[in-house]
Task: structure prediction
Amino acid sequence: MKALIFGGGKIARGFIGHLLHLSGATIVFVDVNAALIEAMRRRGKYRVHIMGAAHKSIDISGFRGYELSDVQAIAGEWAEADMAFTAVGGKNLSALGQVLAAAFCKRCDLAPWVRPFNIVTCENWKEPACLLAEAIRSRLPSEYEGLFDRWVGVTEAVVMRSAVEPTEDMLADDPLCVNVQDFWDLPVDRDRWKGGLPAIEGVRFIEQFAGFLERKFYTYNAANGTVSYLGYLRKHRYICEAASDPEIMEVLDCVYEETSRALALKHNVQLQEQLRFADSSKKKLQDSNIIDYVERNARDPIRKLGPHDRLVGSARLVQASGAAPEGLAVAIAAALFYDEPTDSGAIELKALRESAGIDAILRDVCSIAEDDPLALLIKNKVEWLRTKRWIQ
Ligand SMILES: NC(=O)C1=CN([C@@H]2O[C@H](COP(=O)(O)OP(=O)(O)OC[C@H]3O[C@@H](n4cnc5c(N)ncnc54)[C@H](O)[C@@H]3O)[C@@H](O)[C@H]2O)C=CC1
Ligand SMILES: O=P(O)(O)OC[C@H]1O[C@](O)(CO)[C@@H](O)[C@@H]1O
Result:
């Protein structure tokens, strides 16, 4: 078995590469970051540290690496590969699609198709498989479209292992190592997969997958958004500390309650089952074996305040179910005040807030109009945060 992994970051190395290595696959990483690829080639191995279960940690070696600009090499590897995964960040899928379209044409010219090829997105994003498939297909010359439709499946996975930057000491020893959660399951949408199913450690093909990614995103990520933005205001460094702060837990429980009702309704899942799912998210956030940082989870607030992302997207879902997203509105209000000076997105957000005001952020970043009930609710929660002195 041979697999391409687009992205060489934390999830690519610390989860997808790990599972594929355990399955005996030949692994080819492709990343836009030339320095990262150079380091991967030079060092030839990296360590995956399993947090809280050091005896399961492992060295991964025997992989190859290419820069994304090397379309010819990607096409050559593709011609011999069985599947590909992406872990590049949802906002980069469209740019990746452009390269994959060019590589696909070259790959078609290199060798005839004899079996289907699947690309699995591993991204916290709204409908990433559709997005990537369209980003590739829309750039294909018409004579290649039929081949793409016939031979390539684009499907998606739900990534629930956390992969975290190691400490500076660990990086000094191995700059490519990754700290990961002791979690091994990778659910993949079976219905979008073309052809026979491979046996890959941890990969679980699920039928009627629709909705699972949304449930995960608006449960796990809505919760870690809530915990991290409130955690920042409450000056917590670690996620597990913030998630165990009684004042934050009150808001967190409210978020779980409102998102669970809306998700159960939308996806026709028993409320009790969805609440159990929410509970597993809470346990993960509070797990002190997982050394994860408020800063990492709050990072890139402009993306995370986007209209379909974890906070506003889930608030919209709650509104659509006929309820008011009280807890999520607190989390969004807190995110508007994520003023971390080391985060370029946070600096931009603060400058926008100070120059144009909250209404402008809600309109331009979150796509929430000034007279939308959600805007009014969020602004009420901003005042509430002020009365609690969590913001000035
Ligand atoms: N780190 C985590 O705990 C989790 C991450 N995820 C998702 O996994 C995805 C990857 O996240 P991380 O690995 O944490 O990020 P990361 O920042 O560690 O890695 C992303 C990598 O993608 C590369 N990249 C960007 N654009 C590219 C392109 N067009 N082609 C090839 N490579 C490109 C970057 O250079 C970087 O090396 C994201 O969608 C994230 O939401 C999901 C669950 C958990
Ligand atoms: O970069 P993003 O989108 O915050 O995704 C990473 C997050 O997803 C999670 O796995 C939550 O499910 C977190 O551990 C992690 O912070």
The chain has a mean pLDDT of 97. The domain at 211-387 is CATH 1.10.1040.10 (N-(1-d-carboxylethyl)-l-norvaline Dehydrogenase; domain 2). The chain has two domains: 2-207, 211-387. Residues 124, 160, 162, 220-221, 224, 297 surround 6-O-phosphono-beta-D-fructofuranose (ligand 2) (CB under 6 Å).
